[in-house]
Amino acid sequence: MSNCTNSGQNNTNQNQNDPNNxxxxxxxxxxxxxxxxxxxxxxxxxxxxxxxxSKAGISAIVTAHEAGAAFMAxxxxxxRGGFGVCMGIGGPGITNMITAISAAYFDRSPVLVVGGVxxxxxxxxxxxxxxxxxxxxxxxxxxxxTVWAERVPLAEKVGDFLQKAIRAMLGVENRPAFISIxxxxxxxxxxxxxxxxxxxxxxxxxxxxxxxxxxxxILRQATRITILAGNGCVRSGAGEEIQKFAKKYSIPIVTxxxxxxxxxxxxxxxxxxxxxxxxxxxxxxxxxxxxxxxKIEIPNAEVLLVLGATLNQNNTYSWNKDFVPSQSLVRxxxxxxxxxxxNYQETFINxxxxxxxHWLHKHENLFDANLKASKPQREEWLQTIRQTxxxxxxxxxxxxxxxxxxxxxIAELRKAAPRNTAIVADSGAHTFFVGHYWKSxxxxxxxxxxxxxxxxxxxxxxxxAKFARPLQPCVAVVGDGGMLMHGIEIQTAxxxxxxxIVVVINNSGLGNVYIHVEDEGxxxxxxxxLPTHNWVDFARSLGGDxxxxxxxDKLAEAFKxxxxxxxxxxxxxxxxxxxxxxxEPSGTPAA
Length: 591
Fold this sequence. Notes:
Elements (H helix, E strand, L loop, with lengths): L21 H11 L4 E4 L12 H4 L2 E4 L3 H15 L3 E6 L2 H4 L2 H9 L4 E7 L20 H5 L6 E3 L6 H12 L7 E6 H4 L28 H6 L4 E5 L1 H6 L2 H11 L3 E3 L14 E4 L6 H8 L1 E2 L5 E3 L4 E5 L20 E6 L13 E4 L2 H10 L5 H19 L19 H11 L5 E4 L3 H9 L8 E2 L10 H11 L5 E6 H7 L3 H6 L5 E6 L4 H6 L5 H5 L8 H7 L3 E5 L5 H10 L4 E6 L17
Parallel strand pairs: 1-2, 1-3, 3-4, 4-6, 5-6, 7-8, 7-12, 8-9, 12-13, 13-14, 15-16, 15-17, 17-18, 18-20, 19-20
Antiparallel strand pairs: 10-11
């Protein structure tokens, strides 16, 4: 007889196999809401859930770390277009998720976090991993970075609380929500009551009817008009409407980094993403172009329509003074409380982007004649811009230098990748090389955490995206610094046979930091250097495969092998540490 005992077992588990208990009810309800995968690290206070995943028809994906579970849920949400779910035990399990949850909150991504906590009668008595007011009350920790954070008090309330969490998460805008369930309540029967799914996938179609009436007069008076499309355009599903409007009047479209691909980047009126690391042409249709002696060669936009984007540092090219158009800055956002940044003088319209274009179509008689009359001048302006370079220092894409330049790695990756490949750009200097040299052709195919910019999420976000779209190729581009943080989630990909491709920009250092502390002297630079690790050996030890690439002429074959692989595949690309970032204003920190 074994001497081992289950330390998590107690006398409250007699109902855990009850066919109508809370855990099964919650899982079946989430299944009705469209969830087929949940990401978690199991623990004692989640134990009653574990036998019920298969009963509910949901795949439980066990991750290496709770942060990985939350990042995967976020990647799943962004790629699927709905929401993602992760689970963790109270106390350390939930606190391990904080960075991932906050990144989802700042980027307005819907992630439902389900926490399991100790029995109600033990709370406040100093029990192990007590998540009560006398221990770690994760509700108070999570409230600043969620829209809803509550604990289920009674079994009969679980359906109501779940719906409240989902309504808040998928309300006017998307944000994470948290629901905590004590273990004793998890095991109690639920009174016979069918769950009615909300399925709140359609965005709120609101529009300030008074504020929008200012727009026709603004459009009538302008010739050079530019659309800056943010992720609100993606969430709204407004891509087709934007393209129709732009085509009719020859209006150029640029995107934020997060919304890259909101309009296919081979569309005739797409000029790529705007801002630090953006295309040279995108920045010109917003800010114009001046010679070194300040002579205007290309005039800037007269009217800038900022649609579903905040005016933060990344989206304004580091608050560049030339970001401000010569006539009017118009911003449309679903949330009137979003800070515009740097006190820009703007015309603000509270509303949904798709609804805005429905209104413009209905009232086009108010501006149609003027925009058609100015169309030839606009086309002449755009033609001048198209004759200028799209990429910064193009020669780096075909260089024979060793160590390799990151620009060449990304350029070769884009050549090798199928058109519909989704890319995850982890945080670091490589984020800007991906943004600049990778073209995206559809919404939600370039996934980045652009606002808080935590390092290390790339592999986990990519795994989540692959579960959401298993047939779509997916590549995560990660620095060696990011791999040191959460590269262990390659184990999760291998365990569940997820053929994620991971391209490691291995420059033996923290490349972004290195670039921005060069003026601080050699002692500062020393602290940015890292040991050179073989990430292929690392991947193989976890069940994956890969190739180390040191020479540019070997990249094409390596990527061919990667896209043919049926296991997680690492391309360990040995790159230089001091590569200049593309199209970056002085002093701008990279993501």
